[in-house]
Amino acid sequence: MPHLDSARKRLRQSTARNERNRATVKELRTQIKKALKTFKAGDKNAATADYHQACSKLDKCATRGYIHKNAAARTKSRLAVRLAKVGASPAKA
User: Fold this and answer.
1) Mean pLDDT calculated for residue range 60-87
2) Which of 8, 14, 54, 85 would disulfide-bridge 35, Cβ 3.0–4.6 Å?
3) Prediction pTM value
């Protein structure tokens, strides 16, 4: 345990940030899994909606530094390929 007051505060801050970051990344992964499940179901409208939600979360996480921007771009690309296999267009309607 830290002895200095500033070190104690730093520990509290880092713990809180760590929990917040983990929760945000967990939400992102959940959204991606939801999109993949919808793609398997084959519903074009729901698949497109879930794709856009997942892309939005990926962009936000990449902007805020939760994940690397190239990792977000790669994931979005892979989701777009799976969406195309369903027969839906990734372009916003």
Assistant:
1) 94
2) 54
3) 0.82
